Q: What sequence folds into this?
């Protein structure tokens, strides 16, 4: 039987790979469908995608594990990486917002599309950053 | 001048014959936390520094010190 630390390590590695893979899939699928956004239309798949990614980013998985494994899986480096990733996502959202503001002065953008671009960019950036920091920390030193 | 938190965790862990995983188990953290603290990538909280010191049977200031960059 593997120890709590081994279990937490395995789950953390899986979570880091999943975060990166999901961010790439989300970015490519959503990025390729921006032109298909037709208002007024509540895009449930997009909302579910974002909700799922935010849950992974903010709560970190391990829900079916014991308390000790969950605690090790979300220990202080993970929390620091999460904060760093959220801050990175916020910076990307600001840059994206500035870009949209400038673009809007040349070619007016639909609000729904602008928000979707902003959310896609910031959530993807945060997940990619989280995955990168976690994978780097898991490397042998 | 940039300062950094240096440590001799790896050296002390070696003296006690502990692996990173064993030290992590003693402190109830993940191996990656021990790894990043040892490598100076992550600056631990006071709580974690005290736990590491207790697990390695040393005082905190014997394991960690501030180094000028």
A:
């Amino acid at each position: 039987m593997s120890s709590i630390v081994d279990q937490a390590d395995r789950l953390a590695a899986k979570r880091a790979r999943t975060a990166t893979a999901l961010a790439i899939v989300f970015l490519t699928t959503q990025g390729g469908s921006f032109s298909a956004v037709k208002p007024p239309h509540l895009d449930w798949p997009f909302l579910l995608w974002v909700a799922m990614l935010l849950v992974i980013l903010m709560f970190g998985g391990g829900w079916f594990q014991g308390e000790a494994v969950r605690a090790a899986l979300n220990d202080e480096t993970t929390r620091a990486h999460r904060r760093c990733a959220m801050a990175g996502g916020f910076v990307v959202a600001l840059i994206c917002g500035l870009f949209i503001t400038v673009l809007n002065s040349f070619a007016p953008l639909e609000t729904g599309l602008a928000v979707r671009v902003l959310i896609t960019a910031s959530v993807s950036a945060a997940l990619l950053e989280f995955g990168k920091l976690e994978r780097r920390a898991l490397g042998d030193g | 001048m940039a300062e950094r938190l240096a440590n001799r965790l790896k050296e002390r862990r070696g003296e006690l014959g502990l692996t990173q995983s064993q030290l992590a188990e003693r402190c109830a953290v993940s191996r990656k936390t021990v790894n990043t603290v040892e490598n100076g990538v992550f600056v631990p909280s006071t709580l974690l520094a005290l736990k590491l010191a207790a697990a390695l049977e040393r005082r905190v200031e014997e394991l960690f010190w501030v180094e000028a960059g």
